Amino acid sequence: MSISLHLSALLSRLALAKSRRFIGAGLFGALLMAGPVNAQESSSNTRWVSDSLNTFVRSGPTDGYRIVGTLTSGQKVELISTQGDYSQVRSESGSNVWIPSKELQEVPGQAERLPQLEQQVAELSEELKTIDDSWKVRVQGMQETLDSRKALIDELDSRRVALETELTEARSELRSTQARLGDENKQVLMQYMVYGGSIAGVGLLVGLILPTLTRGRKRNDRWF
């Protein structure tokens, strides 16, 4: 009867341990999913449940073998063989034990990956900061280039306006000069016409008077 009680107690402890392991695994998954969401709502009194959960290991590949120890969640082990639902692994201490295959994974645990993720986040943050600083420098250079080009455009526009004003004044002066030149040409033409007419009149007068004088001299010569 004492053997039966001992077996019953052992089975009860095993069932309790297995239920505690499942509950712990469920809590661990829930914390992983809810952690990033609730992190922003934390206060000075808020705490998180530790993810250092333990898994029982046995001396053989079935549930009938005795429990010989525990492995911590995320602990690194070496796979030796697989039989049924169990896998034989070698722990970091060198012990060969059997663990349910479903409790093994091919990627490192959260405890091992977290520092790597933090390092990657730090590297990415530094890279983003470098990119941001580089873009700030480039934007500042582009802004300075735009400012200098705007100043050059404003200067060229001012010069264009000044040249247009000078061109307008030159055209106005050219028209005035052309008008004065036209008046002067008319006056010169009138003077030429007057001089020509005067010369023609004098020539005509000389042509009329000269024959008369010549005939008078001839008559006087005959009288003597």
TrEMBL record:
| SMART domains cross-referenced by the UniProt entry | SH3b
Q: Its topology with respect to the membrane?
A: Single-pass membrane protein
User: Does Secreted appear among the keywords?
Assistant: no
User: Where does the UniProt annotation locate this protein?
Assistant: Membrane
Which ranges does the record mark as transmembrane? Answer: 192-213
Q: Quote the InterPro entries the UniProt record gives.
A: SH3-like_bac-type, SH3_dom_pro
Where does the record place the SH3b domain?
A: 44-108
Where is coiled-coil annotated? Answer: 114-187
Pfam families hit by this protein: SH3_3
Keyword set for this entry?
Coiled coil, Membrane, Signal, Transmembrane, Transmembrane helix
For this protein, the record's NCBIfam families field holds: SH3_and_anchor
Q: What is the official name of this protein in its record?
A: TIGR04211 family SH3 domain-containing protein
Organism of origin = Stutzerimonas decontaminans
